[in-house]
Description:
ABC transporter transmembrane region fold; alpha/beta; elongated; single chain
Amino acid sequence: MKKLTIFLRPYKKLLVIGPLAKLLEAILELFLPFLMSKVIDKGVANGDKRYVIVMGGVMLITAIAGICFALICQYSASLVSQGAGTDIRNAMFEHIGKLSNSEIDKFGSASLINRITNDVNQVQLAIAMLIRLVIRAPFLCIGGLIMAFILDVRLSIIMLIVLPIFIIILSLTMKKSVPLYRAVQKKLDEIALIIRENLSGVRVIRAFARTDYEEKRFGLKNKEYADNAIKVGKVSALLSPLTNLVMNFSIGAIIWYGGIRVNYGNLSTGEVIAFIGYVTQILAALIVISNLVVIFTKAFASAGRVVEVLETRPSIVSSSSKNNDFNMNQNIIKTTAKDENERNDNIIEFKDVAFSYKNMGTVTNETYDIESINISIKRGETIGIIGGTGSGKSSIINLIPRFYDVNKGSVLVDGVNVKEYDLNVLRSKIGIVPQQAVLFTGTIEENLKWGKEDATKEEILFAAEISQAAEFIERLPEKYDTLISRGGVNVSGGQRQRLTIARALVRKPEILILDDSFNALDFVTDAKVRKGIKNYTDGMTTIIVSQRASTIRYADKIIVMNEGTIVGMGKHEELLKNCSVYQEICESQEQKSEVS
């Protein structure tokens, strides 16, 4: 929680006003039992109605003033807790956006969603309770104890016996419940993950008739969560009855011993009633503290999870060098290139690159996912990458926009190591169409403008024509103003792919990366899109990752991957003659015979 106090700094005034108002309310509350004792001892005992009315009026004013101070505190607590909660969520969202793919993979999207929602809510509640009750409850305990000692020292000894017992109960409860709350939060992450998978993959689950299996799987995780929550509930449930038991025994002991003191004339009836009032206030405050223990226990566990995200440093950061500027990068090229013309001609270079998902950012002796990658791609070339599943095709292209960092070697864009670029500068050069076609809620036009917010209508229409998306968009009643549902579920898979290709083309990137982005297109549309990209995007370097040999057959250069290494590189005809892996792929797809 201490590490999150930075988010409370903008609310310093309210952090003073709120607790101060609560303190004044507590002071006024402490006066009420004292005033009640005077009403009984002087007004009721002497039959003085005027005194009873006057003191009753004073008590009423005191109570109203206390309510006003309580409302001020409540208002301050609401502003601070909601404001700080909003700031924490904004900070987390911004920080998660800076994390590289490796850190996001480590946490998991379900856990991150749970942390930014449920965990922040727990912290937010703790902040509100901190302002409203943390000052009031201890003050009532201490103030009530002082007032009790003023009334009668001997009777106050009962309180001195009770308080240590109460503190022991609180300590044991906190010690037992904190680890359990952490376990509960982890189980909640697992439930969120299953829900997310089921909602996103509902069609696949139904297609494979796995609904019963998923219900059992969810039920099992839900039971594990419930079991952990019950364990915490059992510990927390003991807190309230134990504190009530202690309080009732205390009141019973005070009435018994107070009665003896009244009989001996050492105390008046009003003072005993006032003493019971103070004891009730003290023990009620202690019960509030016991509930605060539960709230803060949850909050501490949640705060730890929030801080864990905020303290995670992204392994991929923009270079702080002034050389990030594009013109400065050109100067680097000019001063470091042995042959300026040759260097500028190669827009992308892989130099002895090795990469492992298990050991990102470090050099190890373990097996790499891809290794010994040496590629030179000239400006304006169309490159095809093909290989079996898990051969490392997507891993290669993920290194160009620096979604991951290499373990060994270097990746250069325009002759400059990608690690020396500002990430925004680097990625502004690249248009990416990922394997999974992702669209966002909004109109088709808004989705196409993702790559370039100030894109003109002509640029959008041109990109849609090249990607063959205009074909179906023009048939829609609202055309480019048609609303896309979350994830693009109201358009087909092929239509989604064409829209994502158009989105990448709108920004007119220097490098266009198509990561298996034609798999939902028929062969005719596939050919039209490739032809459009080739004919109408002069100077654009295109990298096509595909499982289809037909898609990349006419590429300027084809790179064949197998088990993380390059096993062939050249044109289609050359590879058919000298690359056995490529031959097998073509034979399996009946491409070799067609060429022959």
